[in-house]
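agent: user wants the full assembly modeled, not chains individually. Plan: 1) parse entity lines 2) check alphabet per entity 3) run joint structure prediction 4) return tokens. Steps 1-2 passed, two entities, 384 residues total. Proceeding.
--- entities ---
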Amino acid sequence: MQNKLFGFISKYISITEEEKNVLLSLNLFQSVKKGTILLKEGQHSKESYFVLKGCIRTYYIIDGEEKTTAFYTEMDVLTPHCVINQTPSDYFISCVEESILTITNTDMEAEVNSKFPKFEIMCRKLSEELLAKKQIDFDGFKTSSPEERYLNLLENRPDLIQRVPQHQLASYLGIKPQSLSRLRARILEKKS
Amino acid sequence: MQNKLFGFISKYISITEEEKNVLLSLNLFQSVKKGTILLKEGQHSKESYFVLKGCIRTYYIIDGEEKTTAFYTEMDVLTPHCVINQTPSDYFISCVEESILTITNTDMEAEVNSKFPKFEIMCRKLSEELLAKKQIDFDGFKTSSPEERYLNLLENRPDLIQRVPQHQLASYLGIKPQSLSRLRARILEKKS
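--- prediction returned ---
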């Protein structure tokens, strides 16, 4: 797991043995059981998550109903917006699978960044990249039909279709579970 | 306009007279006519935009039809994802109104950041904030009905409703222009 983390970091900056040791001393790795709720609506948090293994999801509860907005799997990073804006969270985060996460908090990040300014550069590059990714995802969602969204998912994140419950997947695609079933049947029919 | 820019920067970092002069020497301000296309699909770009006055929009052309995905008005920042990912743009950017923009490019940013490392901190904070904003917007879009999206717009960006053509607004809300007209009529009826 350490090598996965260091591999990820070295995509952005070079990292020395000393820096690696500082990071290791922070005890960043956590195993989290399936179903664990990492953040609840209304809570304050300073924590960001980097998924080394497994899957976590963000969801809202609106009129008693869960609305899944995102899944984060291997090598994905999530800094909830409540952490940036220092406001109570308006959503939940839970583990879809047993997961291994790197959990950092803003105090720790500030300390590491002031000690090793190049981590500031990494954080900037990473945030820019995540912003670009979010822009692409949002535009893709806005400009496509539910069927196109599903086909897009099949192409870009086929593993998700196997890994997450269908009602969560439907919600993530912005459709009802029955519509997802019909849509899948239609696509299978076209293929056959 | 200079004061607007420096006011914006000083939300993130303190800025000295020397640094202000360096920024001013870069000739960042540009007046852009209504209708000007700043970026075309397929083009490469290194440019980011900060709107001091006016409004720019991003849109895709899909099957010959324009799909508007975002509007950027006063104090909004746009770094197109093609700039971050160094890929050809998959959308267009045009000026909805006569605008005054600060246009920077990645080479210039790298130079300023290496000269004044605190600008790196500003870029990091700004990217994080934009990412949080994009998360909120995307989640809001995904979890609400077209009517809720319109009411949300009325509450948070009422100026947009006056400033941009209705067909662009409809597309931005992910609905057909006729649906937007019906929706507005329904809301007005409820209020009266």
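agent: reporting back. The CA atoms of residues 49 and 78 of chain A lie 5 Å apart. Chain A touches chain B at residues 58, 60, 62, 67, 69, 79-81, 84-85, 91, 117, 120-121, 123-124, 127-139, 141-143, 174 (CB under 8 Å).
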